Amino acid sequence: MSHIRNRMRLSMRYIIGMTRRDGPAEAGREDDMSTVNAQTLIVEKTANPVSDSDREALLQNPVFGRVFTDHMVTIEYAPERGWHNGKVRPHDTLQLDPATLVLHYAQEIFEGMKAYRLPDGGATLFRPDANARRFHNSANRLAMEPLPEDVFIESVRALVRLDQKWIPATDGAALYLRPFMISTEAVLGMKPSAEYLYCVVACPVGSYFKGGSPAVTLWVSDQYTRAAPGGTGDAKCGGNYAASLAAQAEATREGCDQVVFLDAVERRWVEELGGMNVFFIFDDGSIQTPPLTGTILPGITRDSLIVLARDMGLTVREERYSIDQWQQDASSGRLREAFACGTAAVVTPIGKVTGRKYNFTIGDGGAGPVTGRLKAALLDIQNGRAEDRHGWLDRL
Predict the structure, then answer these.
(1) What is the third-level CATH fold of 216-387?
(2) Cα Rg for the chain, rounded, in angstroms?
């Protein structure tokens, strides 16, 4: 369906919460607002959306990150105007000067979040305030201009409201949202950009792993590290993920699904996977996960699972855990289960760990009962099947 993305996009202009503008926009005229807030996002609704039949066909088996909805969000920043020219507009390409700073110095951040279809047909976001807060913190770490958190939330809400038909109704599926910000000043020079572009795109997704969420095998990286103290490990920036690709490629060559990173100083403490946090479940029912010491991403799924585990009466410790102890506990049977978690894959059981010096199986190598309970509890809340005791859902 390449024609869907290559077709000409026509627009009709609206203001969120206001009446429609009369008449077409003047050619070449910039929007007459100097500062964007949550009430002033302009909507340019495509007059040529993907047809209902084509969309339904795409939603039958959505491939992660390959098919996008009809619209996107863009907001610009310049020192003299602040955040301005905020639009929800037809999904399209971005045009950048070859000297654009992001292409050379990787001054970029992003988020990952989902919108879910509710049993009554409505739609909801899950903890968008937490994503907005983390996005703000990432911007500060990358010396970027922070986007107001209320604008972040409303930009995502506005896109989902407009493209609600793209939220799959099948179990385990959702609409994945990717807010991101790039430096756009066109100059070669090692400095923070003066100009930025914030965008949100969305794509329908099914299960991250084909066939559901089978137990994965991890490769212990003893050559590469993901982050070091004082670095960008707790920011969600593209460079962290790019730096993990060589290790992930090594894991793939070794027949493993994912890579697990150790700390950069002692090369002994388990930190996280390439894009997921990790949890350990012991024979006494207690749960342990590495602490947030600045080198690990503060995952929103991670935080949610800690809360849910404690709701179940389980003890959760945020403490360091060495790779040698992991192998010893798995071999002795003290460690019964382990899982990784993140927005994309939700909860993924860990069945086996291997490396140049390690080779061990956790439990029976499959998904354990506590892992299953936690995953079910989280999915039930996200999909509106269970009571939202913590106020995590933002219904649209």
Answers:
(1) D-amino Acid Aminotransferase; Chain A, domain 2 (3.20.10)
(2) 22
